[in-house]
Amino acid sequence: MMLLVPQALDGERIDKVIATMAEATRQQVAEAIDDGSVSVGDVVVSKPSRRVHGGDEINISADLQTPLIELTGDASVPFSVVYQDADVIVVDKPAYVVVHPGTGSHTGTLVQGLLARFDDLARLATGDRALRPGIVHRIDKGTSGLLMVARSAAATDALQAQLAAHSVERRYVALAWGSFESSAGMIDAAIGRSTADPTKMTVSAAGRPSITHYTVEHGFSEPEIVTLVRCELETGRTHQIRVHLAAIGHPVVGDPIYGGAKRSLRLGRPFLHAQTLGFVHPTTGENLRFNSALPADLVAVLEGLTPRWEG
Is the pLDDT of residue 307 over 70? Predict the structure, then answer.
């Protein structure tokens, strides 16, 4: 793995830079350095406290995906099972639950909740899927809604193939700031990691192709001008809807990362809900489609708004 240090991380410790950019834990990074698996240019790094500079090339020969977290079931993790059979599970994830363990989230994840209810998923926890058995796609911690989970290696491959072919139906409802000029549209803008802040994503010509379709549902005038939109993903990049809506001047209400958190309309998380999920069953070939009702916190926000018009 090669990492190019952005100017935003100039002067930072190398263990912090690698942990941030590679989404690894500090312990994983420390062990890689101890093993002599990290170098800057041609110089092997011996101390995790070494400072790096913008433009430095960090080369890592160790596999940072090797889990240092022991996966155990956690029955206290809240989520609803919408559908289940021998091949696939569809869950309704509440906001504030992280999908799988990673940097900063070792316990209380959806994966650990799933293992408590479906212990057969443990056999899928191997290789690069050691911390995310059955997980074929994700939704952000602050996003609620539907997620499909595979229960076998064959189902994992089949569902991932559908995602790659853009044939999975994934529709979200979002509340965005401002009034849209068009009642429907497509945002076709590549998304990549921000060079100014590697914890954020941004529209970038150097990013990966990303397409979001949107349809305006309702407009509101008080206490602020906001618009309820339905968004359908053609691709599934990290933070895609949030980045795309912000890029066209309509950030998601409640989003503190991409400019949507404002005091005049407070919400503890982005107003974003994965409402509809449709896919072909990996074994039977049946077309499956599921819908999730808007959670109470988002309903409460809408009830406090004055409609401007209805589309």
Answer: yes
